[in-house]
Amino acid sequence: MKKYLELSDLFHEKSLDERMLDLAVRFRAYRKKAKLTQLQLADRSGIPYGTVKRFERTGKISLESLWKLASAVGCDDQLDEIFSRPPLTADDLRG
Question: Is a pLDDT exceeding 70 seen at residue 59?
Answer without folding.
Answer: yes
